[in-house]
Structures are given as structure tokens and as C-alpha cells.
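dumping this here before i forget
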Amino acid sequence: MPLTQASFLLFLFAACTAAAPLPTLTVRCYHYAAVPPSVVAKAQAVAADRLRAAGIAVEWLDYPIVDGRPVGPERPERFTEVILDLLPERMAQRMPGVPTQLGVSLMDRERQLAVHAYIFVERAEALAGFAALAQEIVLGTVMAHEIGHRISQARMQLRQRLAVPTTGCQR
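structure:
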């Protein structure tokens, strides 16, 4: 049974405030950039560790790109999903932002949530080389950061929904 937006927000709130099973966010990962599968798997493990520390479990669903098109849904099918694209520089240059950004998250205006995250793989690789860090550490940290926008927005919406309305009456 799919979760509704409200039930996911309540589940997320409960998991963050009590010892309950972690809510799971499904990440549909599309591989536009040529990143070795072993590096992607290690980066996903790094991202999952960082998100677990924030109280969120991650289920990764990896999709190939065939003839320039993703094999799988291009939009999240449930409220508990986010799309994550691993982009080469030629595609990253077409995205909003500045050339030094390592990724960006775009919002679904209707739901006011980040539902699509883009990771600029070659920029993350360059930073890893410059900082003498493993590529999967930088890539996984950027993945967690961009996915984190989705989580923080969901938490903010929950706080707004749980806020006690004021009547404007004064005593």
C-alpha cells in the first residue's frame, strides 16, 4: 500500500523523534555518466551511511540509459521517491547554477518538494583529485547532500502541517 504525502511526513517525524524503524526513501538512480559500477556502489554506500545518520534509510534502484533515454520512470511514482541522475559535464553545463556546483536539486512545484537531483560527476571527480580523496567519498557525499534537500523539505512541510493555527484572539 503506497504511502500518502501526509502519512510519509508523519512517519518521517516519528522516526526522527522516537526509536522507530527508519523511514525508507527510494532513490531511482540513472547512469548518464560513465562511472564504474563499483564506484557507484561505494558512493551509494557512503550516501546511505550519511542519510542513515540523519534518520533515513535508502533503497537504491539503478537504471541504465539506452539510446540516450532512461529505462524506467522519469518522475517519482510515489511521495517516498526521488530521482537522481549522474550526469557527465556536457549535460551538467545545461543545468541551472554555476560551474563550480557539484549538483543541484529541482522542485516539483505542485508538491513543493525536491524530487529530482542531479550529480555532476566530472566536477565531483575533479574535487576528489584536487583534495586527494577517494572519488566514491566525494560522489557519495554530494549524493547525500542533494537527496538531503528532499528530506529537509519534507520535515519543514510536516512542521507547517502540525503547527497550531492561531485565531488572532487576544486575552
